[in-house]
Task: inverse folding
């Protein structure tokens, strides 16, 4: 007896999409649990955030300074 | 110094002329038996004829009847002659699309050039002793190259947007309907019509184009239907490149003006630890739910984990640059080696191109529709335009969401919101790929 | 455009539903015989059950009785179930140590991630067709990767401090007592007790951990006891990372306060030519004395010579960056592939960890004691704190010498003085490795 | 902590001494049969003797009569002893030339170091299990490495000067007379004298040195006469490095003062599109005329096309840096592995060196003479000094043209004019190589 | 009958040099045709050339500006 | 007769440590000879050393100059 491939394909679809959604739903739940745990028990130190921010800021300042220096030179 | 050289020259010219004058029969020099056995002397006229017959023009006009393809099978005369010319013209078209139209040039250029080289008669570069064949067997037939690309892509990926709005992952799931829907369509058309005649494995390999992930497509094609690799890879990268053309009409057809103007809330800050735990967490889930997906997800998360660890920057840099670039060159050439006329110029290729764009379009539509379904439930509304980003094609699909959104409200920036479903689409496709592998095990 | 897509969608949905309704038996479509043979149709319920049985959860609870390990041998049920979970937890511990504690993350992270991937059930990534297995056979089973790492390390090494104070090389020799002492200890415990049961080869491979050189350990383990590779590599890199914890107590226990305050004379300037001749000179000595050590010493000196030549900076840069980084990623994953439960969760591993730390400690102590012995002879006194740097673990051991020295005299900088025995320790370990290889030839 | 370590030390030392005292015969410990079988116990005196016999000094004085070369064939005693020493001294000479004289150090240094390692007795690094042998079989025996080098060189090449003055390509054609003239000379000397005894294949492989292209020489040598690879590669790179010494006297001998002062017209601007179309155009011509040349020309033009496309800068950068550097290291070591005494210290090597310099000189002379012939026809005159650049040796030969030109007229800049024949010489050599391959097919 | 290798070599030379020149002559002709076609039908936009020129010019300007700034600082 | 592995191990230790020290001692002697020869016959030209030093110095000067320029800009 030959197989009806379309029926096979539909089975694949049901099982496949089911697994994809099952996986992603479990992932979403896990992400939420993880975030809650991390925010509760391992909060990020404030300084770490701001320091990176500062660094980026400093870089911007330096670039601004150099740009200004060049502009100044051109005008001069 | 000058004298020595002049003497050398004189000696050399003298000897040359001596040889020219010498009669062929006069030679009495003994040759050791083991030498020369591979060389048969021929009259000059025969040699010239032989040379003329070995030119590409001759090979393209009067093909060698005994010539075999890179798998050692016989080829039709068309595939040895006009087919090659057509394939070379197709690679020129790909060059044009890659360079002038910006179609994923990083992969399409090496693929197309590999295809050009693979279609050269006589040289047989795609054969087991040619350099394309060597590269193919080095890393494509064993699926190493797509895995390494996945590592590099993982190291370039930022899961922050997904972590700050987890539920958008569902959009990346819905878009996989493009894969499975097309699978059903392909087998249905194979069974009930005479248009195509694909097996389940082949249909599965084709439908993965809807996943909009080049390495995943190549990985699955090599596993399930290596004979279709060239066409699937070209279709996959071409359609990924055509995201800005394919997606917007579908997105607009399925959404109302009000929906397109939905504003999403600002993304929360994601801590470094969350980003660090996430790749391992997803991998553990993949282990528990679907181990067959772990080679792809594992490689992806390896790259991401190394990046997020922050302690092995030099490895992460190398993955994102030298390693992925080298592998991209090799992968492209190896895929291109499968663009030989006898494998590409078959009706199946057209079917693959047609099914591929259906898969892509269905995936796009499914993502948008999923967003609309999610909006039926209470909670923060999702702008359905980010649903299309669920197909992956990172980061272009997300940029398309952003661009279409700004067409209707110039202040509505959807880019970061669309990155969530975008990267979730990569995970979703890897899960779908794992399912396809497990079906045929 | 929009219309075409909508039509496609309608067609697609229609076909899907048609197929769903169709009776399985009604199908009369002929399939070509060669196709589909690998796929057997099953009822949906069977497929769902099959899927559930193929999940990682199921595989970890009800292992497949026919499952084989990556060597094709049977495994105990524990190694298929709880063992895998334990191994995955161990890799998490290694992640923690590498990222949070800074334990040699460049190698421990790839090794641990490789171990995580190798312990995934069903996927069999460490098997001959999995990508970890492919990488293993590409460069670890033939010892190419450690050799390439050694080239890169050579290109990063500066022999200047050793050249300016040659006699400190003896400290790097004494530290190799950690290797041979532990070898004796391991065979003694194997022979007279029931704690371990190691062969001479295995004992030798384990004791090389005392050499405190990752690539050398991996090189020897692959040659003499590949079945212990995972445990030896993990022990080797872990202990190298723990240098700042392991060494100071030993150093302090064996030295007096006065000795720790010994000031060493300033290092003389070393000319470029000396640095250029040195690697070739050492290689020639290795050729004359112990050719078995020349693959390691040769690769090391190749990298160093290219750097010191000053004329091939682009090659030297590549060795120190792209090449060593790529190989580090591959080496780590390949070593990690040997961290499967059935190979790692055996009593031997504990023994290896115990013997490894003994080897390391004995090496440290021997270096310090050697410095004290050398101080009994006339001449410039040596601060015994630099003796511990003789184990190699470049450059961390030298930094530890410096740090401990500064605890007692903040103005006594020992760093450069300690770099001499530090690099001599690399040479010493390579010589010891060559001896071990020659014993078993 | 300190206490634990001290206890460990005591235990360890105790066990060590116990073992030393124990009688060998007293042992009743059972050993599992499968273990230890590979190790035979020996008295200490035998071990010391065995060690002394395994030293390099001993191996160089009393060679093992059963020792085989890397091809598994017997070697003469000279090739095991003095021959090795001579070879090592030759590699030192190559070091000197590369570092002090600047002779193509990027390839000569790795080749020479590979040669040094290959001549180490006992270690057998060039054998199939040694790392040189592994690298050789990874990419040289299958010609992958020279192909990859060609890609990188292509990505570094600018065809602009050739495009702006196409007819100078003929100079690059004439210089190939060095190849074919030498071929005739080599077979003539083989046939009519007893100086050499080369076959046609060997003569062809040798004469390609006149093409002044390292990768092409290696490619052809591996195909036609792998037994001569070492000598041919060394000759090829040495002579390419000696371009500033070899070429000027020939150039001056063949030109008049007036000719050397010829000023060439300024080069026209070449559009981006011309540069983009050119590599594909040349490849198509190669397909039509001589498919056998397409592996080399294809790889070269692949690199060039990727660069000129301007859309895959990261791939082009990688080809020009990380990839070509890694492959250069491997190629050098693999070629060096063929510099073993039994293959290099044969009369053939001297003959190859002699024929190589003839080929090089004839090529140079032919290029210059061709320019003079072209000047007999009407049109813009060509300064014959750029004819010598037709041998390729990019970009050194072009610089030599420029330098010699400026000796006679300090304001006559020939550099860019000489780049045209220079890159045409690469194409010409690839065509010549394709012809040689097709002769023996 | 043994082959006279010298004659073989001379045949190789004739055929080889012939092909090399044939190839290069065809290449030269093709290059000329290509250039003509490209200059006629796909002329390079002027702006593209000048913009690249400008960029290089700008880079030079920036370098000059920084150098000047440094010189100024040293003198100051 | 079975081997006493401990005795074997001790033999390995003697031979192994002996060779390690032999090798290093020969190496030390060779290093001293090499240094003597090089300092006597191939002394390093003074200029080479100082020029490298100067270069590093110059780099430092440039960095200092830029830093100063930026500081100046900030204050300004
Ligand atoms: Na996807
Ligand atoms: Na060591
Ligand atoms: Na050439």
Result:
């Amino acid at each position: 007896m030959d197989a009806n491939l379309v029926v096979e394909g539909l089975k694949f679809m049901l099982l496949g999409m089911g697994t994809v959604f099952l996986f992603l739903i479990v992932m979403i739940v896990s992400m939420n649990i993880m975030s809650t745990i991390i925010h509760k028990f391992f909060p990020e130190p404030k300084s770490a955030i701001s320091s990176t921010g500062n660094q980026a800021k400093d870089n911007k300042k330096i670039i601004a300074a150099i740009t200004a220096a060049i502009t100044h030179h051109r005008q001069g | 110094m000058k004298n020595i050289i002049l003497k050398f020259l004189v000696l050399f010219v003298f000897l040359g002329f001596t040889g020219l004058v010498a009669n062929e029969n006069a030679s009495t020099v003994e040759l050791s038996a083991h030498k020369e056995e591979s060389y048969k002397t021929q009259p000059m006229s025969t040699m010239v004829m032989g040379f003329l017959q070995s030119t590409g023009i001759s090979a393209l006009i009067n093909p060698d009847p005994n010539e075999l393809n890179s798998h050692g099978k016989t080829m039709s005369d068309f595939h040895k002659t006009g087919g090659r010319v057509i394939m070379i013209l197709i690679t020129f078209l790909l060059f044009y699309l890659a360079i002038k139209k910006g179609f994923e040039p990083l992969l399409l250029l090496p693929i197309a050039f590999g295809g050009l080289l693979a279609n050269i008669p006589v040289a047989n570069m795609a054969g087991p002793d040619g350099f394309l064949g060597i590269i193919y067997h080095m890393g494509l037939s064993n699926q190493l190259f797509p895995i390494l690309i996945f590592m590099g892509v993982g190291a370039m990926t930022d899961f922050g947007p997904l972590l700050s709005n987890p539920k958008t992952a569902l959009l990346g799931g819905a878009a996989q309907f493009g894969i499975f829907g097309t699978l059903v369509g392909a087998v249905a058309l194979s069974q009930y019509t005479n248009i195509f005649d694909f097996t389940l494995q082949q249909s599965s390999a084709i439908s993965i184009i809807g996943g909009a992930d080049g390495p995943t497509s190549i990985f699955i094609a090599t596993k399930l239907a290596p004979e279709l690799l060239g066409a699937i890879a070209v279709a996959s990268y071409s359609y990924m490149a055509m995201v800005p053309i394919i997606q917007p009409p579908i997105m607009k057809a399925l959404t109302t003006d009000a929906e397109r103007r939905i504003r999403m809330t600002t993304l929360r800050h994601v801590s470094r630890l969350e980003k660090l735990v996430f790749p391992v967490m997803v991998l553990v889930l993949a282990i528990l739910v679907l181990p067959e997906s772990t080679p792809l997800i594992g490689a992806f998360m390896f790259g991401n984990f190394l990046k997020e660890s922050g302690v092995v920057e030099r490895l992460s840099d190398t993955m994102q640059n030298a390693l992925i670039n080298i592998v991209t060159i090799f992968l492209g050439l190896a895929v291109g080696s499968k663009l030989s006329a006898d494998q590409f110029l078959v009706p199946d290729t057209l079917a693959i191109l047609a099914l591929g764009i259906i898969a892509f379009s269905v995936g796009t539509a499914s993502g948008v529709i999923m967003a609309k379904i999610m909006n039926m439930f209470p909670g923060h509304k999702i702008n359905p335009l980010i649903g299309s980003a669920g197909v992956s094609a990172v980061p272009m699909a997300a940029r398309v969401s952003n661009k279409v959104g700004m067409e209707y409200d110039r202040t509505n920036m959807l880019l970061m919101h669309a990155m969530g479903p975008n990267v979730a689409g990569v995970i979703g496709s890897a899960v779908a790929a794992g399912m396809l592998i497990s079906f045929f095990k």
About this structure: Residues 92-439 of chain D form a domain with the Na+/H+ antiporter like fold fold (CATH 1.20.1530). Chain D touches chain B through 61 residues (CB under 8 Å). Chain D has one domain: 92-439.
